[in-house]
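Final report, Chapter 2: Outcomes

The project's central promise was a pipeline that accepts a single protein chain and returns its three-dimensional structure in a standardized token representation, suitable for archiving and comparison. That pipeline is now operational. To close this chapter, we reproduce one record exactly as it appears in the project archive, with the input sequence first and the structure output second.
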Amino acid sequence: MTVVHVLLGLGWWLVAPRGAQGVPRPFLSLHPSREVTLGDTVTLRCRVPHPNVPVSIYEEDGEPKWQWDRVEDTAEVSVNVVTRDFAGRYRCQYNMTALSRFLRVSNPVELVVLDPNFPPPVMSLSPGGRVKPGTDVTVSCWSTYGATFLLHKAGISAPIQRQSLSRGNTATFTLYGVTQSDVGTYGCSYHPRGNPFVSSHPRSEVTLELEEGGPSMDHPVSQQPAPRPSLSLHPSEEVALGDNVTFRCHVPRKGVRVIVYKEGDGNYRWQQDGVQDTTEVSMQASTNEISGRYRCRYEILAPTWATDWSDPVEMVVLDASFPPPTLSLSPRGHVETGTNVTICCRSPHGATFVLYKAGTSDPIQRIVTGNTVAFTLHGVTQADTGTYGCSYRPQENPFISSPIGTSMTIPWHRDTFP
């Protein structure tokens, strides 16, 4: 991750304007869904915690698309998605006039366009037909267009598994030790190569059924699902090759069996019985193969049933064999308040570039591109002061990251601040 410092000329100006720290963020949402079929309408809704403030909604790698001078509570815009160009990652921001040009930026939302020009993948189950409880079932999805495949289950809004292919045309998802909770209809879709916010449409579907004599369909868990477990990585979701990482799965019931596994890879799967509250798996990141997306779930053994899988966590391996990107800033030298600052990252290995800011756990921008990307900080203010990092994920493996690189400093005119 290449680092750049955005600093002011005098030390005491490094403190944000009075009241800026702790100013609540706006919240951006998509309605009726984050997925919209080509030709349909979607509404972007930005809710702000302060009345009478200027608001803008923008795509992460571009200028504001929609702006309002005074918003009382919520700004919204409805868009007819007539082309795939609307697909992307969006944020909104508002301006606190009492804090001069201080901007507060929202959470990101991803608008995925469902394009029927990309045909659905071919799906299959192995073994086919009704299966015995406890069987490992493989769901295969095939398409010549797909780069990232997603597995869905009816009744669950978010994909339950995701797999990115570096080569080949088939993704294989494994449902380990299926129980009554796994019964249902599964769908598969894909993001075409070079279009991470476009999806095939409609989804292919297959149905998983258990043999007669399995757990009862009217078991209470089918009507009142048990709370889901949660999975976390420690000390961080990013780990350097050779360092240790710990998977920690917290469960809300005692004396259960817990399974931790990596999506799409049966070589990384752990199981422990009799877990009372939390189970941990520690390992050394000795190869890049450990990187990927992980989940956990727990099972009750008598009678046999299982919860849905936890939300996924992504373990990213920092690999020093990938050199850090080259970083440049424009404009250079002293920067006045309100200036648009561009951070350029270049690497012949990069496919997805990620921009970080120190003190913020999540990336503040992410762009899928070729070998060069330009991140823009619009109308910089004191709130933008800090250390920024740029890294990239190679195209063949989205869970590998380049390491930390060099640093640069931008001095800021003291007299430009009110």
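Archive annotation: Residues 2-21, 214-224 have pLDDT under 50 and may be disordered.
This record, like all others produced under the grant, will remain available to the consortium after the project formally closes.
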